[in-house]
Write a structure and sequence with these properties.
This protein is an alpha/beta fold. It is 53% helix and 12% strand. It folds into 2 domains: 9-143, 3-Layer(aba) Sandwich (Rossmann fold), CATH 3.40.50.2300; 151-206, Orthogonal Bundle (Arc Repressor Mutant, subunit A).
């Protein structure tokens, strides 16, 4: 008696680089239980294709046009709270990991991971599990232990990283200089930084600043 075929894990790939999507599709298609059902090149297309294909797992880049990875994850999870999404990117900055998880990602892996780890990540998330390698889990734990910066504190930090003095930051943001000093005290405390130089270094290391800052 012939046994029924094992259901395949249906995969939607999301990356704005065609060559990356092609490479991922080739790699994943070698697994007998994987089926790449669609590819999207930006965050908005990812949401549309998810609704059309209803894949078992979405493998999504972080940096995307139109909607970035976390924004697309949040939009998909708004449509389907059970959606399984693996963030696959080049950055392991703790703020990036935290943003992805806050948006609803079930896993986080690096593009530089060995083939067997990538396959394990897709299979784990695609069958309803979570995938956070020890190094990624440690960064997430560290980020969760610290309070978030407010939007204004982020603005002040961005100016600090650009090398602006307190008066320059005040002029740029349209605030009083004592207010800037107050925000900086809070930023240093939240980052665990002793001075401006360390705050700037930690901001870059942890991926706290957006591309526009």
């Amino acid at each position: 008696m012939k046994l029924p075929a094992t259901p395949k894990i249906r995969i939607l790939l999301v990356d704005d680089h065609f060559v990356v999507r092609l490479g991922l599709a080739d790699l994943l298609s070698t697994e007998s239980d994987f089926d790449v059902v669609g590819e999207a090149a930006d965050g908005e297309e990812a949401v549309r294709m998810f609704l059309g294909f209803r894949p078992d797992v979405v493998v999504m880049d972080f940096e995307l046009p139109k909607l970035d990875g976390p924004e697309a994850v949040a939009a998909i999870r708004l449509e389907d709270s059970a959606a399984c999404i693996l963030m696959l990117t080049v950055s392991d900055a703790e703020e990036s990991v935290w943003r992805a998880v806050q948006a609803g990602a079930s896993g986080y892996a690096l593009k530089s991971s060995p083939r067997e780890d990538l396959v394990a990540a897709v299979r784990t998330v695609g069958t309803g599990g979570e995938y956070f390698p020890p190094a990624i889990a440690a960064k997430l734990s560290a980020r969760n232990s610290r309070p978030s910066l407010s939007p204004r504190e982020n603005d002040v930090l961005g100016c600090l990283v650009r090398g602006l003095a307190n008066k320059e930051i005040a002029d740029f943001l349209g605030l009083a200089e004592p207010t800037i000093k107050m925000h900086l005290v809070s930023v240093f405390e939240k980052l665990g930084a002793r001075d401006r130089t360390q705050a700037a270094m930690l901001a870059v290391k942890r991926g706290l600043l957006s591309a526009g800052q």
